[in-house]
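Look over this record before class:
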Amino acid sequence: MAIAFFVVGLIFLVVGAEALVRGASRLAAAVGISPLVVGLTVVAFGTSAPELAVSVKSALSDQASIAVGNVVGSNIFNVLFILGMSALIIPLVVSSQLIRIDVPLMLALSVFVLLIALDGAFSRVDGIILFAGLLVYITALIFLSRKENAAIKQAFAQEYGMSPDAKTSWLKDTALIVVGLALLVTGSRWFVDSAVAFAQYLGVSELIVGLTIVAAGTSMPEVVTSIIAAIRGERDIAVGNVVGSNIFNIMGVLGIASIIAPSGIAISPEFVRFDIPVMILVALACVPIFFTGGTISRQEGIMLLAYYVAYTVYLILVATNNQALSWFGPLMVYGAIPLTFVTLLILTIRELRRKNSAAR
């Protein structure tokens, strides 16, 4: 039964993502909202519904490790695996708004999570602050998008050959979004439940399950949605979905879970020392990657995927107390990570010089 749910869940994910991307991109143009904003809000929040459901359920069931591990693990997975895989399919163009506003916000929120975790718990007050920030963020996005209304509606008429006010288009696209989200949520739930059953059968710890299987499983809607969006040429939705999901995971998922948890969410010292800093490093790596040329190249996609593999291997070595941990950990900390950031710094400096030369 677990294998059957796993396969059917995966099918639902693919079909649901296709419907969601198709409906969201058309509806965005019809109502005068940019695809990027739709990717940052409707698509991102919709595909993050599994993370919200799992974290809320975990918080109420006093399984805080899964609730927090799910959010942090999903954010790491979203950038390293989803962006990496999407860029491998087709180089992703990065909007200037993402570079100026959303990526710095994602980085700032990641640092904020570390700061509020230093006392060993996420309190109800922390949750209220995070959720209030989400409401402000959504309001600001809608306000910014309104400025593009006229140009977007004109593009809609050119692309689809109809008025954006056509009622049939609204109903059809809304239905596609609703059906797509329903299939994504159902498919991800079946996928996660079967994957967790496999992990528990193998005796994997609760925190590792949250950081890897649950995090990757609940991110399957983002995986399939971003890949489908990249294939269809909706690159703003592909990138916006990842960044928006990470922002929603912190302010929405973690915020709500902290609010409803009976006694807050306790955080282990190991989690504060390693997993949250990794999430910050991943967000920090996005700044130069997004900035250099305004694209995420295939080479950068390969680099992101390689780091996700390394991160997963490290977690497995820790969980199994493998002897290879004695050399693998130092190799990543003192070798691969510094080398990557030096490379990204060089690329950023070159891009700045190129822009300065072009301006002259």
